[in-house]
Amino acid sequence: VSNRLYGDSNLDGEVDLSDAILIMQSLANPDKYGKTGSDKKHLTQEGSLNGDVDGEKGLTSNDALTIQMKLLGFYNKLPIA
Q1: CB-CB contact of 67 with 80 (8 Å)
Q2: Which of 30, 69, 70, 77 is most buried (most C-beta within 10 Å)?
Q3: pLDDT in tens, the chain (81 residues)
Q4: Where do the domains of the chain lie, and which CATH numbers do they carry?
Q5: Which residue, among 36, 38, 35, has the nearest Cα to 9 in the 3D structure?
Q6: Rounded to an integer, what distance in angstroms lies between the CA atom of residue 1 and that of residue 43?
């Protein structure tokens, strides 16, 4: 998708620490925060696609780490963006 905001896993229009946290929550507690989770702010399919930023296929803790490293200035841009 050409207008995809890579890193924005919670679909709030920004890439920030909350995106990395949602990815980690979805992995640690998928019943609540995964794609079919019970929490109203669970990860969606689109959010999962946005969050997959480390250059490897699939959403993992490395994607959350990559977002955090970008926020800390280790990367000028996300590897997949």
Answers
A1: no
A2: 70
A3: 568 999 999 999 999 999 999 999 999 999 999 999 999 999 999 999 999 999 999 999 999 999 999 999 999 888 876
A4: 1-81 (1.10.1330.10)
A5: 35
A6: 18
